[in-house]
Design goal:
The protein is α+β, with helices and mostly antiparallel strands. The chain has 2 helices and 5 strands, in the order βββββαα. A hairpin with a 5-residue loop joins β3 and β4. The protein is globular. The protein starts with 8 loop residues before the first strand and ends with a helix.
Length: 97
Amino acid sequence: MKNSRDVPRPFTMHWGSGQIVEEATCSSEHKQPSIQLMEYDEGEAAGRWSVRFCYYSPQGRFQRSPMMIDEGDVTALRESLKRTPRLKAILKRLVDD
């Protein structure tokens, strides 16, 4: 089961396109949860960034359902976040007082 994808890699949304520049991910039997730092370089959102919480199938296909993680995923995603300094800093801003 593959649990990493090349970054940067392109994405396109209705409001803009750009690159996924960092991704924290892990694999389990039924899913590959992923937290992605997306930087827009075209469209309405050009010059901005977004964080996407998503997941992929075990075969690596993007899924359009809400991401759900379990206890084991938390530990694995935390380890993966150690390799994504900008994404980790953004998420820290989300939870720090």
